[in-house]
Amino acid sequence: MKFTINRSAFISQLNNVLRAISSKTTIPILTGLKMVVDQNQIVLTGSNSDITIESVLSASDDSYGLQVDEPGSIVLPARFFSEIVKKLPDKQVTIEVTTGFQAEITSGTAKFQINGQDAENFPHLPEVETDKTVTLANDMLKEVIRQTVIAVSKQESRPILAGVHVTLHDGLLTAVATDSHRLAQRKVQLDGVDGVDYDVIIPGKSMDELSGMISDVKDDVQMQVTENQVLFIFGNTHFYSRLLEGNYPETSQLIPDTADTTIELDAGSFLQSIERASLLSHESRNDVVKLTIKPEDNLVRISGDSPDIGMVEEEVTTSAVDGNDLEISFNPNYMKDALRSFGQSTIKISFTSPLRPFTLVPTEDTENFVHLITPVRTF
After folding, report:
1. Partner of 86 at 20 to 30 A CA spacing, among 77, 118, 190, 338?
2. DSSP of 97-152
């Protein structure tokens, strides 16, 4: 095996594939990067058995300046190999495997030799054979992930909640995540997906990695699903993730459809108020912030305190306040995550009672995005 390639273009693709490679794997070969070279392309593969990323570097793309002298394949120690390539002196790098599984890396006056492994021993990629491909707009997919993945559970006691439940039915894509203390649900109507139904649970960690990768490209994303894998295709990259097995809890009935008290306000300025209030609440053991609403006086006040340090109180600017008087306490971290997902839009927060979950929705699109937070009992 022997090829020469533009070093900086090679590094950018190495960085993509390295996202999937973990040094903590129980399968030693998965700490390596698989390279398969044929006459007109190089395929780089990295995997941690949950996520697999494959990048194709084509000789027809001039930016790679790829010249293949001899096809072949090898698995090289990923982190070590990428560090070497990043520190090489020349614009071009030549990689050659002569005898056995030893690779020679040459660039300018520098030459490295590192030991590799047989690519045949690298786990084979899952085969995703389906004619049910769904095209997702890059910006839309990024937004859906950003708005839902924050509610994914970090606890291992209920592994099914560590994923985002994604369904597609009658053209309606729905993504839901909950950790049993909060819930985020986003719906998007898709065109041209007649006859395609999905019901899958994608790990939150996979969604996070995917979001980071599609931020670097402008292409639409193709999504394909099989029994235990989902595949996202964008640019020259294939991103595979295993699916979580099991039944996701029924969440639709958790979202209340009535409210006794509602307020409308700017998400950005309310976020700043919560951040100020949580400066003190974080120092107390229970870490809660209290919201006091008195519609008759058009008053909305937020407060936080720490017995050791002091207290904070601030009146919140609102555009509408309706319903009954209410005092409710909640985890400020959950509220901050939710508010960030709304950006600078105006939101409506609906409450039923001090101990019942309350909802946040954007005022311009109340049907397709909802965040639900469970309050904290303080008495």
Report:
1. 118
2. E-STTEEEEEETTEEEEEE-B-GGGSPPPPP---S--EEE-HHHHHHHHHHHGGGS
* Domains by residue range for the chain, with CATH: 2-121 (3.10.150.10), 134-242 (3.10.150.10), 255-373 (3.70.10.10)
Cα 240 from Cα 52, distance rounded (Å): 5
pTM, two decimals, is 0.92
In degrees, rounded to 5, the angle at the alpha carbon of residue 56 between the alpha carbons of residues 142 and 121 is 110
Strand order in the sheet with 67-70: 67-70, 2-6, 92-97, 102-107, 110-115
Distance CA(254)–CA(239), nearest Å, equals 33
**What digits encode the pLDDT tens for the residues 50-88?**
999 999 999 999 999 999 999 999 999 999 999 999 999
Three-state secondary structure call for residue 77: strand
Q: What is residue 307's three-state secondary structure?
A: coil
Q: Which residues contact 66 (CB under 8 A, 6 or more apart)?
A: 3, 4, 5, 6, 41, 42, 57, 58, 59
Structural contact between residues 329 and 378, judged by C-beta atoms closer than 8 angstroms: yes
DSSP state letter for 194: T
HSE (CB half, 13 Å, CA atoms) of 251?
A: 26
What is the spatial distance between Cα 42 and Cα 311, in angstroms, rounded to a whole number? 61
Given a cut of 90, is residue 307 above it in pLDDT? Answer: no
Question: How do residues 88-102 score in pLDDT, each as one tens digit?
Answer: 999 999 999 987 899
